[in-house]
Amino acid sequence: MVMLCFKFIISWVLFPLVCTHAFVPSLPRAKTPISRAFRTTSTTSSSSSSFSASSSSITDNLVVISPPGGIGEVAALQAAKMGSSVKWFVISPPISGTESSVVTLTAQTFESIQNSNGGSLEVAGARANTLLLPTDDPESAAKSLGTWCSSTAVNDADSVSSLICVLVDGVEQSIAANLASRMEERDFAEKEKMRGVMMDAIKVATKEVTSTNKSLKKGMKIAVLPVDMVGGSSDNDSDKKKAAGGLLGSVFGGGSRVEVPSSLLDAFGNNENVATLRHGELFGLPESSPDASPFVGGPRKYPVFRDEYTMRGIRIDPSKTASGNQMMGENSRSSRLAVGEAAVQMTKKMMNVKTGADVCLTSLRGMDVPSDEEWAEEFSRAQEALKKNMNGELFSASFGSVKSLERLSDWLATKWAPAVLKTYDIAGIRVGARPVYASRIGENQVEIVWQELKEFKTTMVGKMIIEVFDSGLIARRAAGDANAGYGSISTKPLAGEDILIRRLAEAATQAVEKGLATKPAPTKRPKKQIEEAPVITTVISTGAVVEPSTPSSIDTVSTVAISSEAGPRTSGARRPSERKRGKKKSDEGEEE
């Protein structure tokens, strides 16, 4: 199967590209630290550096800052397909090479952008080390970046622009691709230095864009981070900055560089209209990638679909539980396609994402692509969960329906809970109270009991009550033994409570997969009632219309009209006229 692709080589110098054919022409280069690759607009011209499909008015503006490929590419292309004017700034590794600076897009991707309602895509890029140089340095790309993002309608005072920044995904992949193209091998320390330089460059680019683009103050700013990263900076951030300075010193002969924000959230400047989207272990390739395929190992007699096609379901939860711990576990997985689209959805006004929202996305099994209504419902449920956590409710999950309350409760008490309580995270609690056993109460309730051993006697410190009902389940914290002084509900989280809550979120997904419950149907918007057009009966005249005068005249005219013009479909079946046939010859050869 031959796939038609467009390749755009992004380096640290500016050169225009006319996207009129499926190849990269020879183009002149200018001495500017920013590279403008292409832009999608409705018309193409040899004197323009754009190829796109657009309308006269641009609805939304979006700026995406990310490493090559990954979530950033998914977000940029998805927004362009939705009709937004997108500017995607690609930050490449701080070493020379071409493989990490190639953006490959298929012809189908361009066609989908062309068919969108005013969607456009413009790409530029720079090496990470050029963004960390002082602004007065002639090799610095920071000023050029601010000018590029502030140009055209994206910086219109009346327009509203949004910003998506991807900090981690794509960094290691681009470094590995760059080293592979140069056939070089670097040790772990060198790769960590380059990784730190790229992450610092993303923070500097984010700070430069937010400070120079006025329209970004009104729009949403989304930070896409791993679940274990706090505010866009890891625990050894200071060590990485020192390592990055050493790398810059080895490249330019000195360690002079701009001030780097401590985290990605600090790079946004203020906390107004700022939200965070977190992901677990990533899988899947963007659909625009030539390496992407629905099948594992190509088409086979018994094909096996890749995870990004079998795990299109989504679940969005608050990143922190009521106890302040992470909601996502180590085994939680997130599809790049879903995370990129979620970031774009968070920039929409209809999603009503609040300032300071910190949510995480988990991919679930399912072949159906989430609709806009499902996205809105998931974001609404996640933000409501934040309020419920403050009121003592630990967890809630919604189902379309539960086939049997008793069966689901029995599965939670006899299958799910014992397996979780035997894990090392729970069984390894040696000091204080810990969850010991689970039992079913009544038809639709399950309790998990916390006990503590004091003076060789067990004391019930607290409980977790899981209540199953027809449309979901709710987990609440309950009081312990009143005679032992635990008659009131604890205001502090119990030991291992966050682990159970995280596993309970996985149990809600498993219940749907096992057929114990059904997936909730999204609330669809009421469709506009379209009035049916009146049925018009068409009468076809088969002959001349003659005023009835006498019976003889009517019969004469009708007979002439029907025999000359009418066919069997309009006038009915009639006996055909007698055709001339051959005559039988006698023995003498004469015709009879």
Report on the structure:
- With 592 residues, the chain is of the alpha/beta class.
- It contains 16 helices and 20 strands.
- The protein has helices at 70-81, 107-114, 128-131, 142-149, 171-182, 188-212, 237-252, 264-267, 307-310, 336-346, 372-390, 405-421, 424-427, 497-513, 551-564, 568-571; strands spanning 5-9, 35-39, 60-66, 84-92, 102-106, 120-127, 161-166, 221-226, 274-279, 281-283, 313-318, 333-335, 358-364, 393-398, 401-402, 434-441, 445-454, 457-469, 472-479, 517-518.
- The chain has a 9-stranded mixed sheet with strand order 2-6-4-3-7-8-9-13-11, sandwiched between helices. Strands 14-19-18-17-16 form a 5-stranded antiparallel sheet.
- A hairpin with a 2-residue loop joins strand 18 (457-469) and strand 19.
- The radius of gyration is 34 Å and the shape is globular.
Topology, element by element:
Layout: E1 5-9, E2 35-39, E3 60-66, H1 70-81, E4 84-92, E5 102-106, H2 107-114, E6 120-127, H3 128-131, H4 142-149, E7 161-166, H5 171-182, H6 188-212, E8 221-226, H7 237-252, H8 264-267, E9 274-279, E10 281-283, H9 307-310, E11 313-318, E12 333-335, H10 336-346, E13 358-364, H11 372-390, E14 393-398, E15 401-402, H12 405-421, H13 424-427, E16 434-441, E17 445-454, E18 457-469, E19 472-479, H14 497-513, E20 517-518, H15 551-564, H16 568-571
Parallel strand pairs: 3-4, 3-7, 4-6, 7-8, 8-9, 9-13, 10-12
Antiparallel strand pairs: 1-5, 2-6, 11-13, 14-19, 15-20, 16-17, 17-18, 18-19
